[in-house]
Design goal:
Strand order of the largest sheet: 1-8-5-4-2-3
Number of helices: 18
Order of helices and strands: HEHEHEHEHEEEEHHHHHHHHHHHHH
Structural class: alpha/beta
Bound molecules: zinc ion
Radius of gyration: 19 Å
CATH class of the largest domain: Mainly Alpha
Low-confidence stretches: none
Shape: globular
Length: about 350
């Protein structure tokens, strides 16, 4: 494996208020990848207007492949928005051999600091490509205009460490995966910090937003060094993927992952009260009622989870190790609101 680019371990994050406005002057004739909603707040921050705007509606692979092939030339590719805008800007930049400028509209996903691009292929998540951001502009002015629940959902991909590490250790004990103590220690520390920062995150303060973005960068660096995402991704994500696959609806990623962490921590019998505490202190949305997932849907996704994980050849986790029957489902779902 060739050594990773230093920026893959230490992305170029910039923090401040009004930094998008200043930066836009240096983008030349640029392509902006965003959504109409984000453009409402971000548009007035752009001192230099884009040459072309591309509104992201999907990450469906055939659709975005076609869009990429039809793009006019641009001096800079800029993504401003949530996960999809980040990923599509990364995808276009990768296809054009360029480095995108990314400005997340909320601290809701780790897409800005991840190298690979999350796309959808036949309703399934697939990671491909290699896209390093020239700079990631974390403009608090923009991020704080997003609904509070979107920023709070940023904890999902960090709280996921709680269940992911359990799964990783379990897999190594069963000879299914190599467990790297150093990596596990590194991401476990992020969960401790998350617990301390939960008040700031609930308040969507600058301090909380900055911590979230830096925590993603730190987590991503650990995954790059480890060579896989086991330090932060396990059964909680697998459940989330099955929910998306089965219901064919899209969710705020972090909220769905939070529900996954709670349920899989229950299955793992792994300090569920700590998960509850962090969910409550940050006031992130995770209840099926808030996520509009019905009881039969969730029950089905849990009962079919082992089959799904096997079919998708997902890494070994608690899902493979435990029987998930109606009794188990009843037990782990007992505190949920539908
Ligand atoms: Zn995730």
């Amino acid at each position: 494996m060739k050594p990773p680019d230093p920026r893959a371990l230490n992305p170029n994050l910039e923090f401040g208020r009004g930094i998008i406005a200043e930066a836009s002057k240096s983008w030349g004739d640029y392509l902006l990848v965003t959504t109409p909603e984000v453009l409402k707040s971000a548009g007035k921050m752009l001192l230099k207007k884009p040459g072309r705007i591309f509104f992201v509606t999907t990450m469906d692979l055939p659709v975005i492949e076609k869009a990429a092939s039809e793009l006019p030339p641009a001096d800079t590719i800029v993504g401003i928005g949530g996960g999809m805008a980040m990923d599509l800007a990364k995808f276009f930049a990768w296809k054009k051999g360029m480095e995108p400028v990314l400005a997340p509209s909320a601290a809701s996903v780790d897409a800005p600091v991840c190298l690979s691009v999350a796309v959808r292929d036949q309703h399934k998540v697939k990671y491909l490509g290699y896209s390093l951001a020239r700079v990631i502009l974390c403009d608090f002015e923009l991020m704080q205009t997003a609904p509070a629940n979107i920023n709070r959902a940023g904890i999902g991909d960090l709280l996921s460490i709680h269940t992911a590490l359990f799964d990783w250790k379990l897999a190594s004990e069963r000879g299914k995966s190599e467990y790297l103590q150093e990596s596990a220690k590194g991401t476990a520390k992020l969960v401790d910090e998350l617990e301390e920062m939960s008040g700031e995150i609930r308040a969507v303060s600058e301090k909380g937003l900055k911590w979230l973005m830096e925590a993603y960068a730190g987590e991503n660096a650990i995954c790059v060094k480890t060579g896989n995402s086991r330090p932060e991704e396990g059964s909680e994500h697998f459940l989330a993927y099955n929910v998306e696959y089965h219901t064919r609806r899209s969710y705020v990623h972090g909220e769905l992952v939070c529900l996954g962490v709670l349920l899989m921590a229950g299955l793992q019998e792994n300090n569920v009260s700590r998960v509850h505490k962090i969910l409550n202190q940050t006031q992130v949305k995770y209840q099926p009622e808030e996520l509009r997932i019905s009881k039969p849907e969730l029950e089905y996704c849990l009962l079919s989870l082992k089959q799904y994980a096997e079919k998708e050849n997902l890494p070994y986790s608690i899902i493979n190790a435990k029987t998930i029957n109606e009794k188990t489902v009843g037990k782990i779902c007992r505190d949920l609101n539908f």
